[in-house]
Amino acid sequence: MKSAVLRDYESTPDDLVRAVLYPFCMADYDGDEAIRVSAVRTSDVLDGRRVELVNEALSAAQEAGLIEQVEDRPGAIAMTLLGKKKFLLVRDDFLDDEVVVQLRDELKGIDLYAMLESQAYRHHKQTCTALAVFPEQPCPVSGRWVARRLDQRQCALREGDPVPLPELDENDDPVFWYLMKT
Q1: Which of 95, 170, 181, 182 has the fewest CB atoms within 10 Å around its CB?
Q2: Are 151 and 130 in contact (CB under 8 A)?
Q3: Is the N-terminal amide bond of 166 cis, ω within 30° of 0?
Q4: Dist CA 113 CA 122 (whole Å)
Q5: Are 2 and 165 in contact (CB under 8 A)?
Q6: pLDDT tens per residue, range 142-179
Q7: pTM of the prediction?
Q8: In 3D, which of 65, 10, 18, 2 has the Cα closest to residue 177?
Q9: Pairing relation of β-strands 76-79 and 67-69?
Q10: Rounded distance between C-alpha atoms, residue 97 and residue 93, angstroms
Q11: 16: closest CA among 82, 105, 83, 103?
Q12: What's the distance, Cα to Cα, between the start and end of the chain in Å?
C-alpha cells in the first residue's frame, strides 16, 4: 500500500462512494430499500472509522447526486436514479468478501487530514464529482468525464456509451473516469 505521503487519492472518491453504497446491498440486493444513515457508519466497511471519514463519504455520495434524504423517514437515505445506476455497476463486488476487506483496508489506511489537505484531493473535489466508472462500463449519465491517470484525458459521453479504454495506465494502475462538474 502507498504511504500517505505518496498517495495520489485517485481511487479515494470512488472508494468513499462504494462505502456508502455497500450497506444498501446488505439491506436489499436490489438496492430498492432506504437505509438509516447509521447503517453506513456501522457497516463492515466503515465500522470503527472516524466519523469525519464517514461524513466525507456521505458528502461525496450526496454531492455526486447518488443519495438523498427520505423526507418521511428522518435519518433515512435512499439512492437516487443515478445512485441506482452506479449501484448496479458495483453491487456484485459487495458479495465478494475479499473485495469488501480490500475496500475496508483501503479506507482504514487513509490519513483523513492528509487527504483533505492534499492538492490532488482538493483539486478533484473542485473539478469532479465522486462518480466514477471504469473502462468498458456503460456511462451512467451524460456529461464530460476525465481520466487523470491518462494525462487528464477528457471526453464527452452519453448515457449508455461504453467508457473508453485503456483499463490500466502506463504504471499498471487502474484508470478511473470521473464525471466533471459543470
Answers
A1: 182
A2: no
A3: yes
A4: 12
A5: no
A6: 999 999 999 999 999 999 999 999 999 999 999 999 99
A7: 0.92
A8: 10
A9: antiparallel
A10: 8
A11: 103
A12: 33
**Which cell numbers in the block locate residue 17?**
462512494
User: CA–CA separation, 92 vs 114, rounded Å?
Assistant: 31
pLDDT digits (tens, 9 = 90+) for 35-56: 999 999 999 999 999 999 999 9
Q: Please choose, from the candidates 178, 180, 140, 146, the residue with its C-alpha nearest in 3D space to the C-alpha of residue 162.
A: 140
The strand pair at 177-180 and 128-133 is best described as antiparallel
Do the beta carbons of residue 30 and residue 38 sit within 8 Å? no
Helix pair 12-27, 81-90: axis angle to 10 deg = 90
C-beta neighbour count of 7 within 10 angstroms: 19
* pLDDT tens digits, one per residue of 49-106: 999 999 999 999 999 999 999 999 999 999 999 999 999 999 999 999 999 999 999 9
